[in-house]
Amino acid sequence: MRIVLFFTVLLLSGCSRGIAVNVPDPLSSSDTQVGYLAGSLGVTTEWPSTGKKIITTLNIRHVASNEIITIARVESVPDFETEQLEGQLFTLTLPVGQYELDSVSFKGNNGVQTVRSKSESDLGGMITISPNQVTYIGQFITSSLIAKSPLWNTQYPSGYAKIQHDYVLDRDKQIFDEQFPELRALAFISEPLQGLDPQQLVSTILE
User: Which residues form the signal peptide (predicted)?
Assistant: First the structure.
């Protein structure tokens, strides 16, 4: 049973295309019951607010241990795409318990240089991982804050970012079922991020 559990962890952490997931060893090798965390990361594609050149990282804290899990969209391999946005699903296995969306980090480019920024910490978005259940925390769509060139009087992406957060349950459940047919019978539960103020999902701290 232990071997099967570890195989599942590797499978779900490694099959989110274009998504880099880092789960600290104390959590990835836990002997406790496990559940699943799912959501989607994407970007807007319309100029000049496009987020296509921004890498967005969700920093999720395990409340009991203070260990930080990172989920980053590092490559465009869309699971969904419209004229305005694109993105992909992330799914990972975690020990049951309480987690918090602690902060969001951004790595962008203003056309001249790389810019790094993050949201405030302790965002307060509480997440409960329950056994044998998929906890869905919605989609996070990044767009660039717009800058204006004083020389050319044109607008362009600044490299600093903001996120629109909402829930597209039916779409992401369908993607999940296609990627993990062996898990489609599990409850796929949309969970509001308790205590999160969506206005805080924006670049406020320069790194």
Answer: 1-20
Q: What is the pLDDT along the chain (207 residues), one digit of tens a residue?
A: 333 333 343 345 545 689 999 999 989 876 789 999 999 999 999 999 999 999 999 999 999 999 999 999 998 899 999 999 999 999 999 999 999 999 999 999 988 899 999 999 999 899 999 999 999 999 999 999 999 887 777 898 999 999 999 999 999 999 999 999 999 999 999 999 988 988 899 999 887
| Domains of the chain, each with CATH number or no CATH | 2-206 (2.60.40.3540)
Classify residue 17 by burial, with Cβ atoms within 10 Å: 0-12, 13-18, 19+.
Answer: middle
Q: What is the DSSP letter of 167?
A: -
**Residues 192, 126: Cα–Cα separation, whole Å:** 8
Residues 6+ apart with CB under 8 A from 185: none
Q: Single out the residue of 28, 23, 18 nearest to residue 90, CA to CA.
A: 18
Q: Which two tokens stand for residue 23?
A: 């789960």
Collapsing DSSP to helix, strand or coil, 201 comes out as coil
Give the angle subtended at the CA of 195 by the CAs of 192 and 197, to the nearest 5°: 95
Q: How far apart are CA 131 and CA 34, in angstroms?
A: 5
Question: Is the full-model pTM beyond 0.85?
Answer: yes
Separation in Å, CA 11 to CA 14, 49, 115, 188:
5, 35, 33, 18
